[in-house]
Amino acid sequence: MPMRSPNTASPLEDFFQRLQRAARRILMIDYDGTLAPFHEDPVQAKPYPGVIERLDAIMDDPQTQVVLVTGRWTRNVVPLLPLRRLPEIWGAHGWEQLRPDGAYGQAQISQRALDGLFQTDAWMEQIQQLGGRYEYKPGGLAIHWRGLAPDQIAAIQRLVSEKWSAQEMDKDLAWHDFDGGIELRAQGRDKGYVVDTVLAKSQAAVSAYLGDDATDEDAFKAIKGRGLSVLVRPEYRATAAEVWIRPPEELLSFLERWQSSCKVETL
User: Fold this and answer.
1) Beta strand pairing status for 96-98 and 140-144?
2) Is position 122 within any domain?
3) How far apart are CA 248 and CA 80, in angstroms?
4) Residue 152 contacts by C-beta under 8 Å, 6 or more apart in sequence?
5) Is residue 163 a contact partner of residue 123, using CB atoms and an 8 Å limit?
6) Residue 264's pLDDT is what?
7) Do 126 and 40 share a domain, yes or no?
8) Are 208 and 229 in contact (CB under 8 A)?
9) pLDDT score of 151 more than 90
10) pLDDT on residue 2
11) CATH code for the domain in which residue 161 is found
12) Residues 234-263: what's their mean pLDDT?
């Protein structure tokens, strides 16, 4: 099990000591379940109290780059983050990027993956009849069941599994379980891809990635040996992350320590 508390001597103490001396710092962080508690209505998934103020303070440091890495569309997460300035945001698990200056880019998925996603149109009405909600976004399709009864969830899982097998969708799409649903996504990009891309531009930076879900495991693995991986979650689960902290108190403590480290002059 990873070290649990942000006050634990190692590896967090070592990390923050290095952060104080760093000339360049990168904070990569997931949104749902990490910065904000889950909500049945995604529009209502607001950040924990105190998160915005701490992120604003961290972003005041010119040596720190804040990167939001989320499975959401960037257009859906921006209204939930009333920050003084826009961070770099990678949405849809790396299939789109919104830069701090407002420049936007979206990667192109293969025609075969696109055709696979088109096949799902025929059974989305069934998903809704079972109580589920579906969401098309760049690079994939998310099927949500948060708040449903266990029998409804099981029925949706069976339906998706049957369609997945019958239509041989695994040839062009990848199946990803997440906390509250399933995502069928074009292959080639994930949160690990984002970590690799960001760190490739700043290899000397002291960096950390904070996330909660199974989809963050790719990022935890990608940052291994190059930065700190932090599981942010009320209950522990098996993970590749080095450290486990509980939101919101330990998350806020982590952000406060980052902010304090930024105030120390670099050598």
Assistant:
1) unpaired
2) yes
3) 17
4) 130, 131, 132, 145
5) yes
6) 44
7) no
8) yes
9) yes
10) 64
11) 3.30.70
12) 95
User: What phi and psi values does residue 229 have, to the nearest 5 degrees?
Assistant: -110, 130
Pick from 106, 248, 267, 84: which is nearest to 186 by CA?
A: 106
Taking 80 as the threshold, does the pLDDT of residue 4 lie above it? Answer: no
Asked whether the predicted pLDDT for residue 1 surpasses 80, the reply is no
On whether both 67 and 51 belong to a single domain, the answer is yes
Using CA atoms, how far apart are residues 262 and 205, in angstroms rounded to an integer? 13
Compute the mean pLDDT over every residue in the chain, rounded to the nearest whole number: 93
- 42 pLDDT tier (thresholds 50, 70, 90): confident
Strand (E) or helix (H) holding 128: helix 124-129
Our CA angle for 45, 212, 261, nearest 5°, is: 95
Strands (E), the chain: 25-29, 64-69, 88-91, 96-98, 104-106, 133-137, 140-144, 173-178, 181-186, 206-211, 228-232, 243-245
For 110, which DSSP code? P
**CB neighbour burial string for 108-129, b if at least 16 within 10 angstroms, e if fewer:** ebeeebeebbebbeeeeeebee
> Considering only 76-80, 203-207, 240-244, which range has the smallest mean pLDDT?
203-207
70, 30 Cβ separation under 8 angstroms = yes
**Lookup: tokens for 78:** 């921006």
Q: In one letter, which amino acid is 145?
A: W
Rounded to two decimals, what is the model's pTM?
0.90
Q: Which domain does 167 fall in, by range?
A: 111-186
| Whether residue 142 sits in one domain with residue 165 | yes
The residue among 101, 66, 69, 62 whose CA lies nearest residue 87 is: 66
CA–CA gap between residue 77 and residue 67 (Å, rounded): 13
Of 166, 186, 206, the domain-final residue? 186
